[in-house]
Model the fold of this input.
Amino acid sequence: MAEPVRITFLGGLGDIGRNCAVLESNGRMVILDCGQMFADETQPGVESIIPDFTYLQENADRIDGCVVTHAHEDHIGGVTFLLEAIPGLELDFYGTAFTLGLVRHKLQEKNLAGRANLHVLNDGDTRSIGPFECEFLPVTHSTPSGLITAFTTPQGVILHSSDFKLDHTPVDGRVTDLARIGAISQDPGIRLLLCDSTNANTPGQSTSESTVGPVLRGIFHEHRNKRIIVGAFASHVHRIQQIADVAIEQDRTIVTLGRSMKRNVALARDLGLLSIPDARIRDIADADDLDPVKTCIISTGSQGEFRSALTLMAQNDSRWITVGPQDTVIFSSHPIPGNEAAVGRVRSGLARQGAAIVHSGQVDVHTTGHGTQQELLALHSVANPELFVPVHGEYEHLVGHADLAMRRGMAPENVLVATDGDQLLLTDDGISKDGQVSGDYIYMDGAAEALTEEILQERLLLRDAGFVSVIAEVDLAGREIVFGPVVTSRGWAAANERFDLESGAANEAREAMEGALADSGDIRDMERVSRRAVGRYVAASTRRRPVIVPVIRSTPT
Ligand SMILES: [Zn+2]
Ligand SMILES: [Zn+2]
Done:
């Protein structure tokens, strides 16, 4: 019996975001990606949703390194939280120069760089990490320098696809290395495939990234008498390259807008991944001096993110850019599910100011970075794995991907759908679920400690209906109210009726408290009766249900 391999999924299986898995054998562990996920409007104040790192905290002395497959936030956004969660940990990170450049930036921002050793990988490199021999292969995706990892383990080769597509004409010519995967599949064979499922329910083949360039060229030509603003993902260096190429053809100067856009463009140019001549790129502070029809602004915020550069422009609140009829704004990305409304508001805001809008719903100014069914099948065929676990996707994508593998001919017992928190055991007999750790969402809002579900629930109640406080001081010995009750509210009543309503509520609270005092009640009784009385009044007078917060003190004796 060869030594088993345990795989623990801490995130990324069942929801898109916060990818993180742990591979272990012979008592040693390697972390595979460490991502974060962003909050929606049901999670007020939350900045990051990260995996529950408890399992890693409890086994910190067994961690030998962390492989980061590519530079997207759902793969690297959790690295600082991980180091903060395990104070003594010094961690070796393995990734390409671009990925590690962004990891380094995150670590430096939080003063954690001293606890990380960054090991730069090149295509085709092999490294011994913990209990595994790892081989890293190029993969095409919507950010440069992604890596497929082949882990040689005591249970055979585990191949992790990373986020991938099969693009035969990628902008940088760096294609997914199917030939090497085919060779590994021949000798020694691939035991287990872990494969991206994001587009598992989309039939057909995705279009090449290089088809976007000519579409952009047409739009730039049509709008040649306008200033052009393009919203794109800051990590999508190949999109930025195509935008820049077309802009330069038209003799425009490139201006980057948004912190992450400026940072990523600088890093990609340093590493030779993005080619824009020095003379063709200027700082946003100089944008006003440039001839508008000779300017192309590449901006963050194409997803309608709160306070992002495009959102601020749409609200006429940008420090740098005032949008008007002289502008054409191109949205070179699809809204990610959940962001549609926010993107719609930004587009409307820009149109209201007179800008012409071009987006992916009208013309093909975007293509996906994730392979669709035919590409997934191609990878399955080339890898020809004995076992398969779909990763990276909503639950419906995981199930769809499992179906696809079985339609290709895999036996159902060789295909396993797992979700966050599941632990799998790979042995000579195959793969099975074996144990469970927390797959919970951990909500971070900028404070050192995570937010509890309880705090989130309270925030939602406050957000939905505001709050009403009742403040009073009671002399329990003398059985009298010595101060208040004073009622104060936020988010409950309009300014012109607030005084009357607060006074009315205070009267109700006073009556109820006097009754309780006569019945020799204590402070808890005062709080209970005042909450109930104010609650009744609030509901009857306004039909609203704010949070009611009684603060009743007893006079010191
Ligand atoms: Zn991803
Ligand atoms: Zn990705």
Remarks:
- Residues 466-554 form a domain with the Ubiquitin-like (UB roll) fold (CATH 3.10.20.580).
- The longest strand covers residues 480-490.
